[in-house]
Amino acid sequence: MISSHTSKDFETELRTLRERLCAMGGRCESQITLAMQSIADRDDEIARKVIENDVAIDRDENEIDELALQILATRQPVASDLRFITMSLKFVTDLERIGDLATGIAKRALELNHLQPLAPAPDLGRLAGLVHKNLKAALDSFVSRDADRATSVIMFDREIDKLNASQFAELIAHVATDPATVTRVLPLTSVCRYLERIGDHVKNLAEEVVYMVRAQDVRHQPIIPPSN
Amino acid sequence: MTFALAALALVFATAVVTTLIVRRPIRRLAVTTRDLVRDPSRRAPALSGGADLRELAQWINALAEDAERSRNALHHERTLLASVADGLTQGVIAIDGERKIEMLNDAARRMLGVQSSLVGEPLLEFVRVPELRDLVDHPGDASAEVQLPNGPRTLIRAARTWGRAGRVLLLEDVTTVRKLETVRRDFVANVSHELRTPVAVIRANAETLLAGAKDDPQIAGKLIDGLHRNAERLARILADLLDLSRLDAGQYRLDIAQVPVRSVTEQSLTAVETQAQKRKVEIRVDIPDAIAVKADPKALDQILVNLIDNGVKYTQAEGHVWVMAREHGDDAVRIEVRDDGPGIADKHRARVFERFYRADPSRSREAGGTGLGLSIVKHLVESMGGEVGVEPNAPRGSIFWLQLPRATSARAMAS
Lengths: 228, 415
Prior knowledge:
Oligomer: heterodimer
Largest interface: A-B, 22 and 19 residues
CATH superfamily of the largest domain in chain B: Histidine kinase-like ATPase, C-terminal domain
CATH superfamily of chain A: Phosphate transport system protein phou homolog 2, domain 2
Largest sheet of chain B: 5 strands, antiparallel
Helix content of chain B: 40-55%
Number of helices of chain A: 6
Shape of chain B: elongated
């Protein structure tokens, strides 16, 4: 828990930073949902909306960066506040990349919607569901400052990688049996890859939460599962 | 000297005794007051001290009674407020100046998809909707329509401020309203399109004929054929619309009887045979003789003709349509019309029973439907106490199903 401050303004600035990060996270969650919906419903309008919405995420990145730098310069925070502000600078970069990848999915949707659907249609919804669930858990762990939950998010990324590998193989099998499907399979393999990369950024978010809460850098290290 | 010492000792002893006598009831009063603060239902006892002390005890009791009354009134207000708030279909969230949740009712909890109370939690961190922040920051009344994560489409109004910087937010689920608006908008657009197309052809052909084409027998023949086909189409649409409005008004007369499904299906097939042969679509029927439903035979025939005709129209050439019926539970019969056509996309499936709704407008009009067939099917089935729906067929195509109340079996009827 961030300790209480004598300066009311400083408290308000920290709260604003937290709220803005959460709102940006929420925007990313909804972008992933909409992007996948544009593929499932073959809906160009939704795909275009996702591409348009990315501007707001880019703006969030600039404004949050500026706010964090301003707090650093004017308040010279220490300890947990310093960790929170430095992590927010990384957090925002990962969220912006997630937004870009969701836009990538929407662009592939625009290509796919003008091609015959694959039969049987591959179910990328499950992979997207897992990625979305993990992003939500990472953001929840940030809100509740729960390092154990963040550690679970980091560990869950392996499941996403496994499912991604099997879905990728399934898509390639389509081309093996019918080479004519290659133009339809290629955008879908890109979607698969984008989802897997969103998963990696979610893992980064969780690692940043662990750093913020425990002052412990867990990047590039074996993961110790939560005690309970 | 001795006298002086004795007098001093006497004064000291008197002072000690007097202090003890005065302090005891005060001490008792202090202990009782402490207990009273902890448990307001207790009262200070009658004191044996002086009049002043007795009066003090009385005032303490009066204070305790007052505090208890205020406490009861507060509890009553709180219970009342919670009951009123939880009884509302609108969600209500009150936040303080720090944007921490002070109160949220059952409807708000449902919309946000949370079970816990969330009181004391920072709203904008738990509900990660960017528009919500702007709304809370807005100094006056403001509203925004947002999609809550895993929740409904919601209209949020920041309606009132309370205390120094607190705000009350009202949440209204607008999913159904928006859906109905879309249905109405699409209906108006579709109905005008459906009516305008044949009218435009009739008008253009008539104008061409009047302009002189009537004297050229070859062109006149084609134009008159166009006039006839489009007039027929208009007549079909109007007849269907009339049927629907009668069904809506409850004026469509239904004569419910015990109807053997197989024989009605065979009769319905005669109406679609020509179309099926033309498109080389094979229709297979799998209905046991014994299956019978409680329905109007003419209505059931119309339902089956519409569904089988749809199956034939929308499956590819040389495709298949299956008509089957089975008993469903103890008191219903499920009739299914399956096809192996291209199927219906998820987003259209829920809406195909709407009037004039087209999953693929260009193909449907080419196939010659009025866009009302499935609406009529839905109305007829529901008027006879049944249910109707559509689901995807495996590996492809659609299954249109209906359930009607089961009648005594045809065999039993015959015997």
